[in-house]
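Our collaborator T.R. sent over the components below with a one-line note: 'Predict the complex.' Nothing else. No constraints on interfaces, no templates requested, no preferences about which chain binds where. So this is a plain run: every listed entity goes in together, and whatever single assembly comes back becomes the starting point for the next discussion.
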Amino acid sequence: MTLLDLMPFMMLAPLIGSGFVAVLPGRATPWAVTMLVCLSSAIIAAAVLAETLGGATMSYPFGNWPPPIGIEYRVDAANAFVAFLVAAMAAVTLLWAPKSVAVEIQGRHGTFYALFLLVVAGLLGITLTGDAFNVFVFLEISSLASYALIAYGQDRRALLAAFRYLIMGTVGATFFLIGIAFLYMVTGTLNMADLAERLPAMSDNNAVRAALAFIVVGMGLKLALLPLHLWLPNAYAYAPNFVTVFLAGTATKVALYVMLRFAFTVFGPDYSFVVLPLSTVLMVLALAGMFAGSWVAMFQIHLKRMLAYSSVAQVGYMVLGVSLATLTGLTAAFLHLFNHALIKTALFMAVGCVIYRTGSARLDDLRGLGRQMPWTLTAFALAGLSIIGVPTTVGFISKWYLVLASIEAGAWWLVVFLVITSLMALYYIWRVIEAAWFSPRPNGAAEMREAPLALLIPTWFVVSLNFYFGLDTRLTVGAARAAAGALLGDGGSAP
Amino acid sequence: MTDWLHPALVLLLGAAALPLLPAAARRVWLVLVPLLGLAALFTLSPGTHGQFEFLGMPLVTGRVDDLSLVFAYVFGIILVIGMIFALHVKDTVQHVAALTYAASALGAVLAGDLVTLYVFWELMVITSVWLIWRRGTDVSYAAGMRYLIIHAIGGMSLLAGVIVFYQTTGSIAFDRIETASPAFYLILVAFMINAAVPPLHAWLSDAYPEATVTGAVFMSALTTKTAVYVLMRGYPGVELLMWMGVIMTWYGVIYAVLANDIRRILAYHIISQVGYMVCAVGMGTSLALSGAAAHAFTHILYKALLFMGAGAVIYMTGKSKLTELGGLYRSMPWTFLLFMVGAVSISGFPLFSGFVSKTIIIEAAADDGRGIIYLMLLTAGAGTFLSIGLKLAWFTFFHRDAGLRPAEPPPNMLLAMGLAASLCFLIGVVPGPLYAILPAPIDYNAWTVGHVLKEMQLLLFTGLAFFLMLGLVGGKNKIALDVDWIYRGGGKALTIALRDRISATNAELRNVFMDTLVQWMARVKKRHGRDGKLARTWPTGSMAFWVVVLLASLLMFGIRQH
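Returned assembly:
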């Protein structure tokens, strides 16, 4: 069995596994099987990434039907990078899961983990496939499963949040489907590589323009690009902690990948950024998202909502890199895609630890907690340094490349915006640190113990990754550059 | 990366593990870690190690050559000695600070590029300030704050210099700094602040006497000598430094004569002794540079010994002023003897280490044909002997009996002092091994009749003069004004009036500003708080509205161009 034969199992393992896990009894067994499945996915993803970093493209025809007719899995450095992120984050966050899920979800956990596996399978399917319609199918699989996961939240508002996400997500998916339908109507093919070959001849066709607009808006919605972000804060805030931790690191990233794949590979940058004013629109929305997201986060008193708004701002950073449409800009976007997953996962994990002990995510209930849960809140503070962008953290690396890309594109004024939003991040992280370490514990508040090791160890693992990749950038920058290169069509040559 | 181990890394890991250990194991650990660090130093082979690329800049964390090795060795040795001296201290923060401080000094000395240097440079400040603060007095807190501010300014200057240097030359390699851009002076100023070159020296005599008894030992060894190293590396042969160095030798001596606190006297003598090295760097001849390296090596040892002796006195008596001390030789004979080894070493008595290194620098000045420099360096030595070998020793250990009957310090302190003292003596008697590791192997013999006679004459007549004028040279319980005279004495009234006016204006401005800020914050909170426009939970319809708006605008643009 070669790596190529194994590749589809990255997605198939969780897909098949979910059916199996759904019927497993109890709590520990479903988790263990899920962990096993996600680990194997992550290992395959790592092997595939290593293979494609050199510039290779792997193509796997499903059911041995040759590509234009059958469904093709087509993997280059760009998908491999995102797929690795999804699979690895799934495995890492699962380590954190059992304790947290145990208090939040009653009864057996088989169905819960089955849904989780469906989300993983869907997200991996989206990234791996080379077939436009197949993207839609997996998008629906992952979306439907994630609506259900969010509805698991203990807060009753979780139901409403899931419902609203369902409506908006469906609108987004439908827009995406309409876009693909337009493309199929004009070209008669659904294979992305095929589309890319045929589209240039039809660049004057209005249906093609409409298709691009529909796809960008549809994915913008899944991506939570301002002003299409309105579903995100509540969905993140009220979902079970483990679900937030996982989705915050992966779901929006995959949507960004799809947008990039269509804008750069299928339509080609010459088309996307010339025919539609995509560059301007994305840049304006990205800057607006960076500001509005950070601004609202500064005033939130619910920690998970605060981090959710911060995610809106961070999506802005990624889209800003995209809007520059240069190799460095895209590299910065891919870098931040990876780095932000590390940062937000660490932050949400730390908040999850707090909620595990105190049952509350309100800033007021955090007062004076620093001395009672020092490890948890130190982890939060360190991950906070990363989101602010302090040197030696991954946040700094992302911002550094964004700055490089801005200067390279002659848009040095963007640097000013980056600095201002970093200061805003400093403010909203500082509020938490101030409450935790510099405010006295309210009278009558219960004594809290440190979070259990089962939660702390994975949290600190991700925090340390934040610093490791902040110092050793060979893997991340190399892979991000290869991914950007793959999208811009220079064969994804490694630097 | 695998064929070498950064000694600083050993120390950093050791420091990180220290708080986790049980109290009993810490003492062993405290000696073991510096020894391991020293062992790691001895495994270093000349060459360039630990290179990696960071954000497109080639960083070199390990440049090992003759010059960096001399400093690294002595840093390693003094860390072992200083740690033994500090072994009885129960304060883990101090130990961690000392280990990381030494690690960053090693990191700075081994840095092969300016960015790495800058990182370790700043780390040195952040870690060393804790050695002042942990004294725990208000005075030491304020002194630590001033120390921090001065070095922060120096750090900024260095960072700015590095950036300008990179902009103009496109390189961050740390070699001789030759550029016409402002970077030359920006970096030089940063280095000179750390080397305590007047008028940028006040932090040293201000902070060191306020540091903890054991912390001062490390501080006296590391910061200024790292500065000497970077000056040797970046600015050899800059004439300005030669004159500044000569001024330093005298400046420190004169202020030391005026000072009353025993560690302040020693601190001023750091300035004086570093002056010899800075002056040698300024001369820039091969002999002078070797002399500077040799003198840094010996100076670290005897100065640490002196600080340990003074520290032992303070630790046992709780007093640090000459006017309050006296007659201690009876109750602390070992401390006295070991202190005197340091005192005769710094004074340059033959048979002790100062003699074999200082005379190289003086000889270099003579070889270079610089008469004035030669004379000033030579005579400054008399002042050194006067204030440390005679004044400090006399008024602390003899003179009138102040009624103090302290015991000898704990054995670990005596052991550390003994180690340092025997090194001072060994180097003084057998200077060969020291000469062999100098950057440029030198053909120099300290033991000529001329050298010995000249030195002895100078010192003996100084001693004679001291005892003739004993009444005049004693410590006075007064404050000797340094650069900080501006806000004392004559300018006092003016300063106070000005201060009152400024603080009144400041208070008014603050009130106005804070009122506005509070009002503004309240308004912002009301509008943008939990239920602000942006943060509100919007109905689904409005989300759909935005989708449509975005799609419509994209389509419009797309089709308009058609």
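Summary for T.R.: The CA atoms of residues 105 and 152 of chain A lie 7 Å apart.
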